[in-house]
Structure formats: C-alpha cells, structure tokens
Specification:
The structure is a single chain. The protein is an alpha/beta fold. It has one domain: P-loop containing nucleotide triphosphate hydrolases (Rossmann fold, 3-Layer(aba) Sandwich), CATH 3.40.50. It is about 35% helix and about 15% strand. It contains nine helices and seven strands; from the N terminus they run αβαβαβααββααβαβα. Strands 3-2-4-1-5-6-7 form a seven-stranded parallel beta sheet. The protein is globular and about 60 Å long. It binds guanosine-5'-triphosphate and zinc ion (ZN) (3 copies).
Amino acid sequence: MCTVCGCNETEEHGHSHDHTHKNGHHHHHYGEGEAGLHIAGMDQKNIVQVEMDILSKNNGYAAENRSFFSKKGILALNLVSSPGSGKTSILETSLTVLKDKISLKVIEGDQQTTQDADRINKTGVQALQVNTGKGCHLDAHMIGHTFDALNIEEDSLLFIENVGNLVCPAAFDLGEYCKVVILSVTEGEDKPLKYPDMFAASDLMLLNKVDLLPHLNFDVEKCINFARQVNPKIQILQTSATSGEGMDKWYSWLKAQMSSVIALKDN
Ligand SMILES: Nc1nc2c(ncn2[C@@H]2O[C@H](COP(=O)(O)OP(=O)(O)OP(=O)(O)O)[C@@H](O)[C@H]2O)c(=O)[nH]1
Ligand SMILES: [Zn+2]
Ligand SMILES: [Zn+2]
Ligand SMILES: [Zn+2]
C-alpha cells in the first residue's frame, strides 16, 4: 500500500542483498515480506506499524462518513481507476440522464486543477473539487470536510471520483457503499492481474470505451476472466461513455443499489 513516511532514512538495514527467487523465475519481488512492500531504510515491522497508524485513523473517519450516509439514505460510490479511463466522462453522461430523477452530488479528487469539477458543474449537478497536492488518493477525512459545502440530500446519490491511480485508493476506505473500478479497453486486459488490490476491493467493474474495440486487439473474455480470478464476486458491465452503449445497465445497477440503501436507512 501507500505509506506516507517522513523519517527512518538513517536506519541501517540488516539484510543481505541475496534475494531468493520463488518458482525459479529471475525477478525481484519486494512484496513478499510482512509489510507487502519495500521502503529503503525502513524495516518491515516499522512499515507495518506506520501503515496501521495511518489506516486506523482513516478507518475512524470512514466509519463516521458511513454512518452519516446510512442515516440519510445516501448511496456513496467511490469511483477508482488509472488516469484517463473515463471516470469523468461516465459521470457527465450519467448525470445528464439521471439528474431530473435523482438528487445527485459529486466530489472530484485530483492532485491539481478544478477541470473535472468544472466539467461536472456544466451538467447542472453540483461538484466540489478536492485537490490532494502530492497525495495520491482521497482519504476519509477529506470526504468528511466536503459535507458542509455540498449539503447532500436524503435518499440521494453521491459520486466520489478518486484520484486517477490504480494502486493507492484501494487501501483507503472513504466510508463508501462500495468501490466501482473503471478499466478502459485501451489499458490492456492484464490489468486485473497486475493491480489485483483494486479489483479485489471493488463490487463492480465498468469495462469502458468498448466503442474502440474494433480498432484494438483487446480480448474482452480474457479480461473478464482475469478480473474474476482476482475477485470471483465482481460484477462486470461493458460501457461506452461516448456512444452510450451499456449505459442503461449501469443506470439500472445504480437504481437497484439506491433502493437497497434507502430500504436499509437508519431511522
Ligand atoms: N472512445 C471513447 N473515449 C472515451 C470514453 N470515455 C472517456 N473517453 C475519453 O478518454 C479521455 C479521458 O476521459 P476522462 O473522462 O477525462 O477520464 P478520467 O478517468 O476522468 O481521467 P482522470 O480524472 O484524469 O483520471 C477523454 O479524452 C475522453 O473523451 C469512451 O467510452 N469511449
Ligand atoms: Zn500512493
Ligand atoms: Zn476525471
Ligand atoms: Zn486528513
């Protein structure tokens, strides 16, 4: 996961530089220790401790957000993907279709600029931009701070577009109902295997830009099998934000999730 650490660079490391190679393949795997990652100058126990501290604080804020959402019957979705898969385009198309029927709000996460929030605001739906600066993901604390400005209504739908990054947002619970991962066909069918955490953490995968399939050697079935290998329960819809293909199934999925959130609303 993504560890934000400012120290320990001076610590001597006690391991030798002999690496063992499982399966007989010659590659270096830095994810086989207790922490699942390597940071030069930090031992595995320290990394685990820093991660636990960061994540447990985040989880506290996420629990507060989740309770706020469930009391008000708000379906909060955390949209995650690599940069450019089409998160904002899917939102622009969806909001235009849904805005007369459903109360909607959007939180836009990017390192810099208000471009995505500006695009969303043009649809007539209110969006609030959160810039993370050097940060590579939204955290639950940032989400809690948007509530005053957004005034999210009861029985409504809140889209949270995370920072384009297929790795770090997987580890940070925002208090959402679920994560929706967007993968576009121009990224290659192997992404669920290479970045498994995000696909394991998501309930739904939108395979986007399917209008481009005739121009590519992208094997849809193979990609779906890879995603199910990582997460056997993941639901998968094929969409195109530009042609509109598959978008009706996405809207039906949204409405079904909204109904269950409203039915389960804490009173
Ligand atoms: N052909 C095609 N292009 C698409 C589709 N969806 C998005 N795009 C294009 O892909 C590019 C990136 O789209 P965005 O919606 O900005 O992607 P994003 O995931 O919001 O990007 P970041 O917020 O920067 O991570 C734009 O040029 C879109 O027009 C699609 O379904 N088909
Ligand atoms: Zn990160
Ligand atoms: Zn975007
Ligand atoms: Zn914070």
